[in-house]
From TrEMBL:
Gene3D superfamilies named in the record: P-loop containing nucleotide triphosphate hydrolases
The organism's place on the tree of life at top rank: Bacteria
Keyword terms, alphabetized: ATP-binding, Nucleotide-binding, Transport
Organism: Bifidobacterium apri
Domain ABC transporter: 18-264
Coiled coil: none
Official protein name in the record: ABC transporter
Gene Ontology CC: one annotated term: ATP-binding cassette (ABC) transporter complex
Length: 266
């Protein structure tokens, strides 16, 4: 069985409440300015519905701000952001839509995992408590935990506490935490940050083998051009604006040209 086939059965879907296969993010003149006056994202109009989207750019270019607007961690200070899933249209940042968005959009923040995970005796208990707090049924929790640990290569660590994991497996646990509610899409901010080449490949394989949408910000331009990760679309950001939108290879070439031009001006 292929890696994609293994992950396509990550969770069974209940017939009475099927999860949408994909969602569409729509930004209409969306922008975000932080309280200190710093512009995180400038006026942006964009529709994202591709299966694999990468976001690249220098530090401070707006990657994290864009992802937080997509997952609802931030609300735009002007314009709007909406998520369309089936016949529903939701607004990230809206209190009334928060629960629905949490079930549709899983957030991966580098190697960050919920603080509660560090208070649990084991990662198995941490995942169980995390799901229980979100009202996942007992029988379903156990099935999900077993599958997550196996598919994300965490079974050997199941009885160990989160702080005993090495960096690579902590990154994988962050993905597992994001998958607890069986979301339709993962929004991942630098999911391989700080890993060596082997660790990066391991985590990237796990992330992109998932049978669901992924929007991922990264500095690893070599990773996004690898054919096995099947990146459909890449956005290049600079100074809070999208300056290129196209294939991964063309985006990486535009990124290299941008950096070269900046160095020449200096």
């Amino acid at each position: 069985m292929t890696a994609m086939g293994m992950f396509s059965g990550l969770f069974s879907r209940r017939v009475d409440s099927p999860r949408p296969d994909h969602v569409t993010f729509t930004l209409a003149h969306a922008a975000y300015t932080y309280e200190d006056g710093h512009t995180g994202l400038r006026d942006t109009t964009l529709t994202l519905d591709t299966r694999r989207t990468a976001v690249i750019g220098l530090n401070g270019s707006g990657k994290t701000t864009l992802l937080k607007l997509l997952d609802g961690s931030l609300s735009p200070t002007s314009g709007s952001v909406t998520i369309t899933a089936g016949d529903k249209t939701l607004q990230p940042g809206s209190r009334k839509d928060r629960k629905s968005i949490n079930r549709l959009v899983g957030c991966v923040r580098r190697e960050e995992i919920p603080n509660s995970f560090y208070r649990s005796a084991s990662i198995t208990k941490a995942l169980d408590t995390h799901m229980q707090a979100r009202h996942v049924a007992d029988s379903e929790r156990q099935a999900r935990i077993g599958t997550l640990l196996a598919q994300l290569d965490l079974s050997a660590w199941r009885d160990r506490p989160a702080d005993a994991l090495d960096s690579e497996h902590r990154h994988l646990l962050a993905i597992a935490a994001a998958l607890c509610l069986d979301p339709s899409v993962l929004v991942a901010d630098e999911p391989t940050k700080g890993l060596d080449e082997i660790g990066t490949a391991h985590v990237a394989r796990a992330l992109f083998a998932l049978d669901r949408q992924v929007v991922s910000a990264t500095h690893d331009t070599d990773m996004i051009t690898r054919p096995e990760y099947a990146i459909d679309r890449t956005l290049l950001l600079r100074d809070g604006s999208i300056v290129f939108d196209g294939s991964a290879r063309d985006a990486v070439a535009a990124y290299a040209d941008m950096i070269r031009s900046m160095r020449e001006r200096v």
